[in-house]
């Protein structure tokens, strides 16, 4: 976490610079010197406020996750609170929102996932994100399915999100958000009962 006193105007600058450099040279090549040059600040600022590259990557992912959370809230607020299918699809749509599928963001996600396997702080952040997604999906699905089935279907949807996202991120053409949502919607509709329980 960045130290208290980090100028707020600098934080987004550094986050954007970190993603841009990872996009260009990968995580291993993304040195503090390159990031600071891209952001137009001194390397000393990064080392002082973030403790170096590791702390900056953690802050960058927290920024991406905050953006994902805000997008999820926005998508959910636009659909009927009683429409289970629409609400699950809104959660899925947020994961494939324009910002989340930009090249610099997808490459940062990939770098984060790979690094989190070897770093306890990043791993903890990844687990929080994973549990949050499953929790949101289960909460909506429980309105239409028994608890254990809701948990099972939530895990299936989360796996589809991650799998389709990963395949798309590794594709030179990028992620096709529309196709991803169609595939997951098809799976969802096959899992939901014809008449949701709340409508009986």
UniProtKB/TrEMBL annotation:
MF annotations from Gene Ontology: DNA-binding transcription factor activity; transcription cis-regulatory region binding
Protein source organism: Vibrio qingdaonensis
Pathway the protein contributes to: Amine and polyamine biosynthesis; betaine biosynthesis via choline pathway [regulation]
Signal peptide residues on this chain, from the entry's feature table: none
UniProt record, GO biological process: glycine betaine biosynthetic process from choline; negative regulation of DNA-templated transcription
Name under which the protein is recorded: HTH-type transcriptional regulator BetI
Domain HTH tetR-type: 8-68
Residue ranges of the annotated DNA-binding region, renumbered to this chain: 31-50
